[in-house]
Amino acid sequence: MTFSFITYFTSTLLADAYRAPDPVHGKRNYTYMDVVRATLGGKKTQLCGIAQHVNLVGVTIGYTITTSISIVAVKKIKLFSL
C-alpha cells in the first residue's frame, strides 16, 4: 500500500511537471532529465544524471547476479542438459 501511494504521488508530480513552469503554455519536458533541468537547472541536473546512471549500473549488476544464481539452480535440478 505504501509503495503504491509513493508511485502514485511521484507520477502525479511528474505529470504536473510535463509543462513547466506554466501548465498551459510552458515548454514541454519529454524526459525526466528535462523536468529536472527546467525545475532545478545547472549542477543539480548533472548530479541527478549521475545518480540515475549509478542506479542503472546497480540494478544491472543485481539482475546479472540473480540471473546467474537462477541458471545454476536450474542446472542443479537438471531440467535442462546444458
UniProtKB/TrEMBL annotation:
InterPro entries: AA_transpt_TM (IPR013057). One of its GO terms (biological process) is amino acid transport. Transmembrane segments: none annotated. Residues 2-76 form the Amino acid transporter transmembrane domain. It comes from the Eukaryota. One of its GO terms (cellular component) is membrane. It is found in: Membrane. The keyword Transmembrane applies. Keywords: Amino-acid transport, Membrane, Transmembrane, Transmembrane helix, Transport. Its main location: membrane. The keyword Transmembrane helix applies. This is Amino acid transporter, transmembrane domain-containing protein. It comes from Helianthus annuus.
